[in-house]
Every structure is written in C-alpha cells, then in structure tokens.
Amino acid sequence: MSEIPELLSYVAALSGCAGLLYTGILFVVALVSVLASTPERRKDARTTLGILLRRRSR
Q1: φ/ψ (deg, to 5) at 38
Q2: Are 43 and 49 in contact (CB under 8 A)?
Q3: Using CB atoms within 10 A of its CB, is residue 9 exposed (0-12), middle (13-18) or buried (19+)?
Q4: Is 29 in contact with 52 (CB distance < 8 Å)?
Q5: Per-position b or e across 14-44, b if 16+ CB within 10 A of its CB
Q6: What is the Cα–Cα distance from 24 to 4, expressed in whole angstroms?
Q7: Sign of the alpha-carbon dihedral angle for 45, 48, 26, 21
Q8: Cα–Cα distance list, 26 to 10, 30, 33, 50, 57 (Å)
Q9: Which parts pass through the membrane (predicted)?
Q10: pLDDT number for residue 19
Q11: Do residues 49 and 29 lie in contact, with contact meaning Cβ atoms separated by under 8 Å?
C-alpha cells in the first residue's frame, strides 16, 4: 500500500512537466507569430497557435 503515494507523486511531477512543456511550446509559437520576418510565417504561426488553443465545444 505504500507504493500508491509514491506513484501519485510521480504522476504529479510528470503532469507538471507536461504542463510546463506545453506552456513553453505555446510561448514559442506566440513569439513566432509576432516576430516572424515574413507575413506567411506569421500567418502559419497564428494558425498553429489557434489549433493548439482550440477548445472543444460541449
């Protein structure tokens, strides 16, 4: 029974790392959508950002 708290802490740490990674990816894509040198790249980055942030309707 002592494995459950240890497993939960690993799951929490993994979830935190995944959240940080996703946030970092969103930050980089947002920067590219603002700072890209060509309008085509900015448009592509905005499209990607829209896909990553899209919420599902319920």
Answers
A1: -115, 150
A2: no
A3: exposed
A4: yes
A5: eeeeeeeeeeeeeeebbebbeeeeeeeeeee
A6: 30
A7: negative
A8: 24, 6, 10, 10, 21
A9: 12-36
A10: 95
A11: yes
Question: pLDDT by residue (tens digit) across 4-58?
Answer: 999 999 999 999 999 999 999 989 988 888 888 889 988 888 888 888 888 655 4
Taking residue 4's Cβ as centre, other Cβ atoms within 10 Å add up to 8
Q: Which residue has the tokens 């790249």?
A: 41
Residues in the chain: 58
Coil, helix or strand at residue 1: coil
pTM: 0.70
Only one residue has tokens 């599902």, namely 56
